[in-house]
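S.,

As promised, the guanosine-5'-diphosphate run. Input:
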Amino acid sequence: LGRRINAAVSDLTRSPNLDEKAFDGMVKEICSALIEADVNVKLVAGLRKSIRNTVSFKDLAPGVNKKRLIQKTVFDELVKLVDPHAEPFKPKKGKSNVIMFVGLQGAGKTTTCTKLARWYAARGFKACLVCADTFRAGAFDQLKQNATKAKIPYFGSLTQTDPVAVAREGVEKFKKERFEIIIVDTSGRHRQEQDLFDEMVQIQQAVRPDQTIMVMDGSIGQAAEQQSRAFKEAADFGAIIITKTDGAAAGGGAISAVAATHTPIVFIGTGEHMLDLERFAPQPFVSKLLGMGDMAGLVEHVQSLKLDQKDTMKHIAEGVFTVRDLRDQLSNIMKMGPLSKMAGMIPGLSNMMGGMDDEEGSTKLRRMIYICDSMTDKELDSDGKVFVSQPSRITRIARGSGTSVREVEDLLTQHKMMANMAKKMKGGVQNMQRAQGAM
Ligand code: GDP
Ligand code: MG
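Predicted complex:
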């Protein structure tokens, strides 16, 4: 997708007789790329209007960095779509917070409820699970296995067939035991059916959740809009979790779900493993949707500067990218300047630095380097997973570097994005262009 958009913009900016018609053609090409990435058709039409309103043809006069302007507009508009500016529910310690999952069968509810319970448990909450899926044979076993692995207490029944009764009993039991996060997993059906919706509403009335979360398969595509509307109407969920974002799907469906229901995405599932759950952030998500920045260009530039790149290049060829590699890259960038140009080549970094001038940008970079320098060697040479399994490291580093937890988390997100890219590029720099094309 990113490649197609880049190509459309480049065609335009290279075109010798830049006219209104060529500009229209470019907007059209961008929009059809977005529709192909499963962004809802109506949303794309709106986006098209926004682009036309924001970037007028006369703005594209010589001297304006047209490419940047257009790309930034597309990026900003997509971020706007995926960010409903609604605050998601924040559970309180010392109180029983009931969270109920809804969604179609196979969406990833059972997998994700354990991930989420573990996520809260790792942050000091007393968390547990209730299996209210009495519809699918084996549902309770699946939850039991996951929960046992994650050491999360659970409740369910092999004999009780009424999901409402099981849900009520489980939630009451755990409330008495003063659990702070009680997650209720429910059944799904293959299709949206009235009895599924009826069951959802009955469970809701029985357990009175503080938050209902819709779990949606990230590869759902154009069906996302209609499906999320139907669930919103029946179960009025207050948050969305998108699963399987590690898959090949373009992810445009997620944007449609948010836009259709004005409900924030709170987490994304990034794999089948228990730790594969990330807090959702609009900017990195859109950045990923649109492509990967200009990594190939950056590497070329860096090579031409003859900076010390040996280890990183070797790592990338092996499909590895450590936190230390990120630190080395950051300090190289400081040497390379001008920052605004360089940052634009690194996926995610330009968004993080969006709107900053070069001075603010270098302050930000310097803080990122401080963060790395507060890490132990083990952390620096890791693939970043140690921070997921032991989040207390993040607090320690924030304190040690005089930055914030948020900034450390941003840096780790940035690192993960680059590590994923390195994985795709395994086999050498020559493959980079290909890897970019595949996104
Ligand atoms: P449910 O029917 O909604 O409870 O869905 P499940 O939790 O049983 O998940 C269905 C399948 O999707 C399982 O094979 C999961 O391992 C898989 N799955 C769930 N979340 C993710 C994810 O984020 N990434 C990947 N790759 N697979 C996932
Ligand atoms: Mg299930």
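The longest strand covers residues 211-217. The first helix runs from residue 2 to 14.

- D.
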